[in-house]
Each structure stands twice: as C-alpha cells, then as structure tokens.
Amino acid sequence: MDTPAPLRRLLACLDLTRLGDADTPADIAALCDLAARLPVAPAALCVHPEMITSARDGLLRRGLAGVAIATVVNFPDGAADPARCRREIQRARGAGAQEIDAVLPWRALLDDDPDAVVACLMAVREASGPLPVKVILESGELGSATRIREASLLAIHAGADFIKTSTGKARVHATPEAAEVMLQAIADTGGRCGFKAAGGIRTPEEAAQYVAIAARLLGPLWVTPTRFRIGASSLAEAVLAQLSPKPPEA
Ligand SMILES: O=C[C@H](O)COP(=O)(O)O
C-alpha cells in the first residue's frame, strides 16, 4: 500500500524516541530496526546520552546515516544549573549528538526568576555551538497560557531552534492548547523558531492535530522537518499498523 501523504509527512517530521528508565543497547537496536521498517525515514532518533553510540552504530548499520541523533540534557527535571547543562552538552557532543533537547528550568520560572531561566538557556545555546537546540518547556507544569507564552518567548529570544512541549515524564503531556500558545509565540516572532510536540502522542490522529495548528498559524509550507517535529515513542508502530492492518480473525 502506498503511504498517504499525511502519514509521510508525520514520519518525515518524527523524532523517533526511546527515553526509558533503563535503556540498553538492545533497546536501541530495536529502535533502529523500527526506523528501518518505516516507509519514510524519521528526522531523528531521540535517545539518552549514554545510548548515542549505540544509536549511531545502529543507524549506520541499517543505511540510515541521514537520520540525526538527538539527545536530552537537563532531563527530565529541568534544574536551574548552567554548569550542569554545559557539562552534559559537552559530553553529548563528544559522543556524537547532532541535536540537543534541553529542559527549561521551569520551576525557576514559576518562582518568578526569569534571570535563572535565561542563564541556563544561554549556557545551553553556547555549549551547543552549531547544533540545533530544542528547548523543552514542560508546558504541562507551567499552569497557564501566560506562563507558556513567557517560557516560549524566553526560549526563542535565547536562541532556541525549536520549542518543545514536554519531556513525556510529567503529569500532563503535550496538549493542543499549549501548542496553540507556543505556535502563536513563534508566529509573533517571525516564524524562525521551530516547534516540537512531544509527550503522550500515540496515534496519527493525535499527531495530525499539531500539524493542523501549525499549518493554520504558520502556513502549510512551514510544516517541514526543519521547523516542525513530533517526538513520540509509540507513534511509529501506530503508523505501521494503519499501513498494514491485521486481517480480521476467522
Ligand atoms: O521527547 C519525547 C518524549 O519523551 C516522548 O514521550 P512519549 O514516550 O510519551 O511518546
């Protein structure tokens, strides 16, 4: 079956994610196998820093060198510790990370300490050098649209390449309401920062909601992997299941 265009776009924008509590090289090999089974290669594999080498080797072995390796720092807690951010990013770059997903110190924001937030974000930006930086707002913890917009603007002004909703580890994951606020902040600042929806997105229908909001606020041509990502640990299987539905039992 040909892959319908909307599913092709979801896969092309996918950060295929494995951020378990005790991932092993075998888990990452399975993730690479899954990437290789997809009809369209994902934009990136998103793994813990200690799994970067396994991801790189696994992708190379399967002819998927074009898939970027993203990793997480300041994750999942989002401490207000610039030195820790620098240290983790240096290690990740040394291991071969190509994209950095860094958690914004959201508790400092809730404590009305934007300077502490900015100090961390600047450290992330500087330590990442030319690598794309995705700042994870942990929108489900921010409590209001006002705080989500404030976090979005701080991250955008600190040089984020993407703002990302969630770690997938909080009580509330990505929501269309948070995405609307974040994408509006991106639109209001010229559309140069990208957007990543992540956390709790399990079906193509859920993912399509985020595509629709981005296309409405920024235009359909904006929704490409350079500006738009979906981070998900189980979306790819759901896409494959839609492409090859199991025959009904006799
Ligand atoms: O960064 C991506 C998230 O951790 C993925 O969350 P998920 O496991 O709920 O898909």
From TrEMBL:
<dbReference type="GO" id="GO:0016052">
    <property type="term" value="P:carbohydrate catabolic process"/>
</dbReference>
<comment type="similarity">
    <text>Belongs to the DeoC/FbaB aldolase family. DeoC type 2 subfamily.</text>
</comment>
<dbReference type="GO" id="GO:0004139">
    <property type="term" value="F:deoxyribose-phosphate aldolase activity"/>
</dbReference>
<dbReference type="Pfam" id="PF01791">
    <property type="entry name" value="DeoC"/>
</dbReference>
<comment type="pathway">
    <text>Carbohydrate degradation; 2-deoxy-D-ribose 1-phosphate degradation; D-glyceraldehyde 3-phosphate and acetaldehyde from 2-deoxy-alpha-D-ribose 1-phosphate: step 2/2.</text>
</comment>
<keyword id="KW-0704">Schiff base</keyword>
<dbReference type="InterPro" id="IPR011343">
    <property type="entry name" value="DeoC"/>
</dbReference>
<keyword id="KW-0456">Lyase</keyword>
<dbReference type="InterPro" id="IPR002915">
    <property type="entry name" value="DeoC/FbaB/LacD_aldolase"/>
</dbReference>
<dbReference type="InterPro" id="IPR013785">
    <property type="entry name" value="Aldolase_TIM"/>
</dbReference>
<dbReference type="GO" id="GO:0005737">
    <property type="term" value="C:cytoplasm"/>
</dbReference>
<protein>
    <recommendedName>
        <fullName>Deoxyribose-phosphate aldolase</fullName>
        <ecNumber>4.1.2.4</ecNumber>
    </recommendedName>
</protein>
<dbReference type="GO" id="GO:0009264">
    <property type="term" value="P:deoxyribonucleotide catabolic process"/>
</dbReference>
